[in-house]
Amino acid sequence: MSSTIFKKSVTNFYLLIFLISLSIISVVIDLKYPSTNYVRVIINDFIVNPIQYIVKTPSNFFYSLVEEKETIDQLQSKIEKLEEDNIVMKMNLQRIDALENEVSRLRSIKSEMAQRIENIKIAKITQRNVIPNKESIQISIGSKDYIKIGQTVMGTNGLVGQVVEVSMYSSKVLLITDINSNVPAIITRTGKQVIIKGRSQDDFLEISFLNNDTDIRSGDLIVTSGQAERFIADLNIGRVIEIIKKEGERFATVIVEPSEYMNNINEVVLTLDEYKDK
């Protein structure tokens, strides 16, 4: 075995000597005969470069395939992202259309209310609980001031009640906090129509017969709907403060805090324009 290694070492040594000698001869020839440079150029152009091109072609082709695949994947991802953005934009456009309609509705309400407020009567509360067993007040204006039964009574913050009796110089008002009061209303966030009634146990309000699966949240604003022309539309009634859902029961108990605290007001507002178009 040692002799074999020795033979290989000698062979490699002679090969190294040969290559070194060839290199020296090549340098000497280049220095002595500059014209040999053309031979080298020809060899490089017609032998070495073609061989290198042939050797590199498979690897270059493979790398181009890999880059093309990555580019296609990137383009596909961009297309999917653009399609998703397009869907989001279309959904937002739908919401913008809905908001534009809501803005138009609110502008018409504002214009309508501005006309009503031009012709108002401010009345003082002269007495409370004037109707036996009912939440009620008496106010200081009556038929002499063109007040009529069914007229809406408001405060500066929202709905107070409705005129139920009229005499020459005074009127009686049933408050919305009375258990016998029923006010057609709307949940402003969803447009759901509901009925608001008073509660016998406290000064809060309650939504009647609201299904457990109705979309309603704490803080939702409730306003008058104007249905059946019983009250002026779009007056604040109150905000939802508690939602109670009991298992096995069809309807939820929804408590509403009124916008006007009936025990804190001393004056109310009525508009004489309420019955102009009736």
Describe the 3D structure.
- By secondary structure, the chain is α+β, with helices and mostly antiparallel strands.
- It folds into 2 domains: 2-63; 120-271, Rod shape-determining protein MreC, domain 2 (Thrombin, subunit H), CATH 2.40.10.
- Helices cover 41% and strands 27% of the residues.
- The protein contains 2 helices and 12 strands.
- It has helices at residues 2-32, 36-117; strands at 120-128, 136-139, 152-154, 159-166, 171-175, 182-187, 192-198, 205-211, 221-224, 236-244, 251-258, 267-271.
- The protein has a 6-stranded antiparallel β-sheet with strand order 3-4-5-2-1-12, with no helix packed on it.
- β7 (192-198) and β8 (205-211) form a beta hairpin.
- The longest helix has 82 residues, at 36-117.
- The chain is rod-shaped.
- The termini are far apart.
Overall SS class: alpha+beta
Strand percent estimate: 25-35%
**Spatial arrangement of strands, main beta sheet:** 3-4-5-2-1-12
Biggest β-sheet strands, sense, barrel? 6 strands, antiparallel
Number of domains: 2
Shape: rod-shaped
Stretches where pLDDT falls below 50 for ≥5 residues? none
Features:
single chain; 2 domains; Thrombin, subunit H; six-stranded antiparallel beta sheet; alpha+beta; rod-shaped; six-stranded antiparallel β-barrel; 12 strands; 278 residues
